[in-house]
Amino acid sequence: MGAEDELLVAVHDAHSEALYRYVARRTGDAEEARDVVQETLLRAWRNPAVLQRSDEGVRAWLFTTARNLVIDDLRSARRKREYATESPPEHSRADQTRADQTQAVLDSWVVADALLALSPDHRAVVVGAYYGGRSVNELARELEIPPGTVKSRLHYGLRALRLALQEKGVTS
């Protein structure tokens, strides 16, 4: 072991416990305090001139460095956006409802886009029957066409809609 390593061991033995207590009080987290002490000693090891100072100078440098590390961590974006927990949060019913609504909105966009691929006559019958909830006879009166034509347009319109959805990647 070199002279610098022996100095670092001596600094560790002399100051690590007090440094740990200081950081633990500032952070309130034992694991984080250990990490900060380790990083502080690593920085001291990388900066050998620090280890050459008097005992009071080394101690002041260690505590100042640890304090700055704690402050930097508190200001970091990680601290502002991440929260440590013992277990992952459970999804609430509101989250599930929101997810279900999102999928429904996306599905409606795909269907609306596929409906645009239909001819206006087929689209009018399909939308009237499925979205308007109207019967064949009601659609026949409304569109002024025979009920058989409504049935035929509905059949071929749904077939064209199925093909348009398959082209968009929706499987039947």
From TrEMBL:
Stored InterPro entries: RNA_pol_sigma-70-like (IPR039425), RNA_pol_sigma-70_dom (IPR014284), RNA_pol_sigma70_r2 (IPR007627), RNA_pol_sigma70_r4 (IPR007630), RNA_pol_sigma_r2 (IPR013325), RNA_pol_sigma_r3/r4-like (IPR013324), WH-like_DNA-bd_sf (IPR036388)
Keyword Transcription regulation: yes
Biased composition (Basic and acidic residues): 80-98
Domain RNA polymerase sigma-70 region: from-to ranges: 13-79, 114-162
CDD domains, per database record: Sigma70_r4 (cd06171)
SUPFAM superfamilies in the record: Sigma2 domain of RNA polymerase sigma factors, Sigma3 and sigma4 domains of RNA polymerase sigma factors
A Pfam family that the UniProt record links to this protein: Sigma70_r2
Keywords: DNA-binding, Sigma factor, Transcription, Transcription regulation
Superkingdom classification of source: Bacteria
UniProt region (Disordered), positions on chain: 80-99
Annotated family: Belongs to the sigma-70 factor family. ECF subfamily.
UniProt protein name: RNA polymerase sigma factor
Annotated source species: Nocardioides luteus
